[in-house]
Automatic annotation (TrEMBL), chain A:
Keyword annotations from UniProtKB, A to Z: ATP-binding, Nucleotide-binding, Nucleotidyltransferase, Transferase
Catalytic activity: sulfate + ATP + H(+) = adenosine 5'-phosphosulfate + diphosphate
EC number per UniProt: 2.7.7.4
Top EC class, one word: transferase
Family: Belongs to the PAPS reductase family. CysD subfamily.
Record-given protein name: Sulfate adenylyltransferase subunit 2
Superkingdom per UniProt: Bacteria
Ranges where the Phosphoadenosine phosphosulphate reductase domain occurs: 28-256
Pfam families: PAPS_reduct
Start and end residues of each stretch annotated as Disordered: 284-303
GO molecular function terms attached to this record: sulfate adenylyltransferase (ATP) activity
Entry-linked PANTHER family: SULFATE ADENYLYLTRANSFERASE SUBUNIT 2
Automatic annotation (TrEMBL), chain B:
Residues that coordinate or bind ATP: 478-485
Lineage start: Bacteria, Pseudomonadati, Pseudomonadota, Alphaproteobacteria, Sphingomonadales
Entries under SUPFAM superfamilies matching the protein: EF-Tu/eEF-1alpha/eIF2-gamma C-terminal domain, P-loop containing nucleoside triphosphate hydrolases, Translation proteins
Domain (Tr-type G) ranges: 31-247
Active site positions, chain numbering: 552
Catalytic activity: sulfate + ATP + H(+) = adenosine 5'-phosphosulfate + diphosphate; adenosine 5'-phosphosulfate + ATP = 3'-phosphoadenylyl sulfate + ADP + H(+)
Protein name as it appears in the record: Multifunctional fusion protein
Length: 303, 641
């Protein structure tokens, strides 16, 4: 008898989920946000369909405000996987110059929430993989692996289907779609362990390095594009070089950096295990709207 | 005082994180995975117990803890002490808001295992949630309040866990602190439970006296308060109990094929999650249902070919021979393949507000196979509290019953007791696409191989070719008095004059013969249409153009007939006459009778008519003559000939 480890079991489950979608959905897509969870999800997709490339494209719903390192890895990862990369920019957000400084929560709402809906509708995707995990947040604990969305991308909590065994009901009416979360049962530690075990490339920003930083409204941020910051902030922020890293990755003016010495994967995990604040602290989106933030975002179709 | 978590070294390795992270990671790299469910009713201490498990295994961060401490003081039920229940009480809030009560999944880990906990509410109205949570669990923790002992709900929870095939039950006698850690109280409860467990066929269980709140016998045992207890602590037990995957590995090899991997002409792989047993290159395999045999050539993964793969792994196999394998096939050990059958006895749990309709066609999905299934009227329903067998005509939300399931194609399966993957199925409503039921196969009632189709030498195409026409079923549907029979008759006359071979099946004449045993209840109406559908199909097989005129009020049954026929041969003709118009015509005086209450279940009056959503032909009888309508249908039928 072979004793399967927890990572082997989680991997097998995720692969099984992806293959079900590939077999039963008409036009699936993988939402790719370039973070570590996306990296793991993409890696699993490659494994699920090897030696074929994954039979769906990657979709990045971009805000134009991501870190440069993220854009670089995005192009490389898609090419390595042999997958088509679709990048969507909400044209209205672009036209109105929506940015994280002047527009607050509207920035996320227009670029990401609206942008995602637009992209899904435009391409007619009926199933979209997302990298969300149940351990991320209390309201996620009861999220299904297959989450149904109405034709207008709404999430109706009363209308979700029971999931028994590993038998997934993927049927839906025309216009309706499903969000599929193959990493539902992974924890943050599982994700890191898997990255380590499988040697998965992640954005270097997860590792500590000397970076140009500035303080803004009590947080520490990285000046990834100083000229652009100057244009929207009206003046150049005061830059100090600090040894920092990021626990999660998003738009650079919204993603808090933490001072850190962790330069290797093991050190990053060590730091993660020893920190005493939950992962999403660094991201402004949750604090915006208290605990109900996630639930609300979900109903609006953010995920 | 609650134990401080740091004082419990049994599953603490914090020091290692700081001192030697590599060693820590090594230790955690090779953990196993156990899934379990906690069952208990409100106030048995379920949330407190789960909260403690998360807390003790450091799954709670400082910011969450600070919030927890503040909340404990504000709304907690334990005075100044930390109320662990608040960590997981999402469900309680939902209950108040009236949102669907769900299964919440929580995670924690010790150095030996990662755990996935399915947390479900315990009330009878949440049976379906418990069934869902139990379906993937290796083990169930049945919580009992030491002050209350074995209750009805304890029996219900145990029955469901057992029904869903959970092999390991833990009887967690909780709140021992409130009965002074009294040994005889504990033993009394265990004895009580044992006699009940034996009755329902639970051979073994592990009783543990605990206090979720104080921490006794959770991490280590025996606690100072229960020196008389000689068994393992809850965590120790969870860390060592056999995982269901180990049992699955011991079985014969079976892999339901999910996806055929065809990157180029030189590679043809079959991808799937191995349901049971193990496989090596060179192993002889049989493809079910085709029965063809071959040998495994390679086990392909991105990290290199494997020498062996076991139950629980997702792999891609290549075979030595070119055999026909597709999604839904099962690749199995050549000398011990699974059965195929099209009739079963199954335990069915109903998950929907809309009750089961015996005779109606539902999608049935089992592993990677999807077929149409009809369920007979249940043999009996099981009262989940008394476990008595009750007579039942249908199954309502949360009901559990035993019934016969018939499928339109043979299904490759294993009894649920042998394999969850090949014995468990879900039922899906064909119109709403909702998951309405879950079933567990007990055994097959007749082997598919025994009902060999009579193989015929003259094919369907030859029959049609002889008549020089394309067979079709013109299915007229509409209210009583809408004009179905009139138009259908005209269509037949026109086709007849054009030398087409036709036959008209009309509601009234079929009811006098073939279906004279049927009345007008929902179930009888469904059977009526099923029979007409089968007859129409045989006639279409004989090459005829069949014309039917039945009210056929339910979409699901019209869909069922459509599914019986080859694509394009079912032509739905909606004779669309508003109710007021049909009622005003009242050719047979039936509406008047129905209004007077002399006719029950009359379509349009006290029984619904579900309009076709996209019929091939729609006839507005208020806008055209029957003659024009008949031309419309004939033109549509012959449009490309
Ligand atoms: N004394 C004592 N109280 C407990 C224990 N476990 C739970 N409780 C209390 O019992 C009540 C209900 O607990 P809770 O975990 O919310 O129950 P649930 O409804 O089953 O989740 C709360 O007041 C808990 O603090 C225990 O082991 N000992």
């Amino acid at each position: 008898m072979k004793r399967l480890t927890h990572l082997e079991r989680l991997e097998a489950e995720s692969i099984h989920i992806m293959r079900e979608v590939a077999a039963e959905a008409t036009k699936p897509v993988m939402l790719y946000s370039i973070g570590k969870d996306s990296a793991v999800m993409l890696h699993l997709a490659k494994k699920a369909f090897y030696p074929s490339p994954p039979p769906f494209p990657l979709l990045h719903v971009d805000t134009t405000w991501k870190f440069k390192d993220m854009y670089a890895l995005r192009e490389k990862s898609a090419a390595d996987a042999g997958m088509e990369l679709l990048v969507h920019h909400n044209p209205e957000a672009e036209a109105q110059g929506i940015n994280p400084f002047d527009h607050g929560p509207l920035h996320t709402d227009m670029w990401k929430t609206e942008g995602l809906k637009q992209a899904l509708t435009m391409h007619g995707f009926d199933a979209a993989f997302g990298g969300a995990r149940r351990d991320e947040e209390k309201s996620r604990a009861k999220e299904r692996i297959f989450s149904f969305r109405t034709a207008s991308h709404g999430w109706d909590p009363k209308n979700q289907r029971p999931e028994l065994w590993n038998v997934y009901n993927t049927r839906k009416a025309k216009g309706e779609s499903i969000r599929v979360f193959p990493l539902s049962n992974w924890t943050e530690l599982d994700v890191w362990q898997y990255i380590m075990a499988e040697n998965i490339e992640i954005v270097p920003l997860y590792y500590a390095a000397e970076r140009p930083t500035y303080e803004y409204e009590g947080g520490l941020f990285m000046a990834d594009d100083l000229d652009r910051l100057e244009r929207v902030m009206g003046k150049k922020p005061d830059i100090t070089m600090r040894k920092v890293r990021f626990r999660t990755l998003g738009c650079f003016p919204l993603t808090g950096a933490v001072e850190s010495e962790a330069e290797t994967l093991a050190e990053v995990v060590q730091e993660m295990l020893l920190t005493t604040t939950s992962e999403r602290q660094g991201r402004v989106i949750d604090k915006d709207e208290g605990g109900a933030g996630m639930e609300k975002k979900k109903q609006e179709g953010y995920f | 005082m609650a134990d401080t978590p740091a004082s419990d070294p049994a599953y603490k390795v914090d020091a290692l994180i700081a001192e030697d992270i590599e060693a820590y990671l090594q230790l955690h790299q090779n953990k196993g995975l156990l899934r379990f469910i906690t069952c208990g009713s409100v106030d048995d201490g379920k949330s407190t117990l789960i909260g403690r498990l998360l807390y003790d295994s450091k799954m709670i961060f400082e910011d969450q803890l600070a919030a927890l401490e503040a909340d404990s003081k504000k709304v907690g039920t334990q005075g100044q002490e930390i109320d662990f229940a608040l960590l997981v009480d999402g469900l309680a809030a939902e209950r108040e808001q009236g949102i669907t009560i769900d299964v919440a999944y929580r995670f924690f880990a010790t150095e030996k295992r990662k755990f996935i906990v399915a947390d479900t509410p315990g009330h009878e109205q949440y049976t379906r949630n418990m069934v869902t949570g139990a379906s993937t669990a290796d083990l169930a923790v049945i919580l009992i309040d030491a002050r209350k002992g074995v209750l009805t709900q304890t029996k219900r929870h145990s029955f469901i866990a057992h029904l869903l095939g959970i092999r390991h039950l833990v009887l967690a006698v909780n709140k021992m602190d409130l009965v002074d850690y009294d040994q005889s109280t504990f033993e009394h409860i265990v004895a009580d439970y044992r006699s009940f467990a034996q009755e329902i066929g639970i051979a073994e269980f592990t009783p543990i006296p605990i206090s979720g709140f104080k921490g006794d016998n959770i991490a280590s045992a025996p606690s100072a308060n229960t020196p008389w207890y000689t068994g393992p602590s809850l965590i120790e037990h969870l860390e060592t109990v056999e995982i269901a995957n180990a049992v699955a590995q011991a079985g014969s090899f079976r892999m339901p094929v999910q996806w055929v991997n065809r990157p180029n002409l030189d590679f043809r792989g079959f991808s799937g999650l191995i349901a049971s047993g193990s496989v090596k290159p060179g192993d002889a395999v049989r493809i079910v249902p085709s029965g063809k045999t071959s040998t495994v050539d390679r086990i392909v993964t991105m990290n290199g070919d494997l020498d062996e793969a076991v139950a629980g792994q997702s792999v891609t196999l290549t075979l030595a021979d070119e055999v026909d394998v597709s999604r839904g096939s099962v690749i199995a050990a050549a000398d011990d393949p699974p059965e195929s059958a099209d009739q079963f006895e199954a335990n069915v749990v109903w998950l929907s507000d809309q009750p089961l309709i015996p005779g109606r066609g539902y999608w049935l999905k089992l592993a990677t196979q999807t077929v149409t299934a009809t369920l007979a009227q249940p043999k009996y329903e099981i009262d989940v509290n008394s476990l008595e067998h009750l007579a039942a005509k249908t199954l309502d939300l949360n009901a559990i019953g035993v019934t016969e399931v018939t499928t339109d194609k043979p299904l490759t399966f294993a009894p649920y007791a042998d394999s969850r993957q090949l014995g468990g199925f879900v039922l899906i409503d064909k119109l709403t696409n909702a998951t309405v039921g879950a079933g567990m196969i007990n055994f097959s009632l007749r082997r598919a191989q025994n009902v060999h189709w009579q193989s015929v030498d003259i094919t369907r195409d030859q029959h049609a070719g002889m008549k020089n026409q394309k067979p079709a079923v013109l299915w007229f549907t509409g209210l009583s008095g809408s004009g179905k029979s009139t138009i259908a008759n005209m269509v037949e006359k026109k086709l007849f004059r054009m030398n087409r071979h036709t036959f008209l099946l009309d509601g009234d004449n079929v009811r006098h013969g073939l279906n004279k045993d049927l009345g007008f209840t929902e179930q009888d109406r469904i059977e009526n249409i099923r029979r007409v559908g089968e007859v129409a199909k045989l006639m279409a097989d004989a090459g005829l153009i069949v014309i039917t005129a039945f009210i056929s009020p339910f979409r699901a049954e019209r869909q069922m007939v459509r599914d019986m026929l080859p694509d394009g041969e079912f032509i739905e003709v909606h004779v669309d006459t508003p109710l007021e118009v049909a009622e005003a015509r009242d050719v047979k005086g039936l509406y008047a009778k129905a209004r007077a209450g002399q006719l029950k279940n009359f379509t349009g009056i006290d029984s619904p008519y579900e309009e076709p959503e996209s019929p091939e032909v729609r006839i507005e009888t208020t806008a055209m003559t029957p003659e024009e309508a008949a031309d419309l249908v004939v033109d549509w039928l012959l449009r490309d000939s």
